[in-house]
Amino acid sequence: MTTNASSDTVAPSAEPATEWPLWEVFVRSKAGLDHKHCGSLHAADDRMAIQLARDVYTRRQEGTSVWVVRSDQIVASDPGEKGMYFDPAQDKVYRHPTFYALPDAVNHM
After folding, report:
1. How confident is the model over 1-53, as pLDDT tens digits?
2. Residue 45: what are its φ and ψ, rounded to 5°?
3. CA 45, CA 23: separation in Å to the nearest integer?
4. Taking the CB of the first residue and of the last residue of the chain, which one, N or C, has fewer CB atoms within 10 A?
C-alpha cells in the first residue's frame, strides 16, 4: 500500500494481491462408494487443503476418505465437442445389446 502525500488516507497499491490456489474437494461417504465432489476451497499446499477439507466438509464424521485436487490440474472435455465423446458409435453394433433378449432376472440393465 502507498500513502497519499496530500492526506492521511491509504491508497491501494498497484501490486496484485496473491491468492492461494483453488482446490476441488471430493468426499467418500462410505467404504466401497465413489467419491463425490462436494465443493472447493483455497489453500497454500496439499497438506493444508486436506486439513481444511476435513474441517469444512466432514465436520459431522460423514466421510471415510477425502481427496483434494488443484483446480488447475483438472482436464475436462470441451462441451462444444460432446458429440465426439458421448454420441453412440453406430458402426459398433456390439456396444448395443439389441440382437439378443435379456432374461427376466436381469431387469436392472
Report:
1. 444 444 455 555 566 668 999 999 999 988 889 999 999 999 999 999 999 99
2. -150, 180
3. 9
4. C
Residue 42, SS3 per DSSP: strand
Q: In the structure grid, which three cell numbers stand for residue 22, read together?
A: 483453488
- Reduced to 3 states, what is the DSSP secondary structure of residue 29? coil
- The single residue listed with the C-alpha cell 487443503 is 49
Domains of the chain with CATH codes: 19-76 (3.10.20.520)
3-class DSSP state for residue 1? coil
Cβ neighbours for 30, distance < 8 A, ≥ 6 positions apart? 64
Q: CA 38 to CA 48: how far, in whole Å?
A: 17
- 77-90 per-position pLDDT tens digit: 888 888 777 776 66
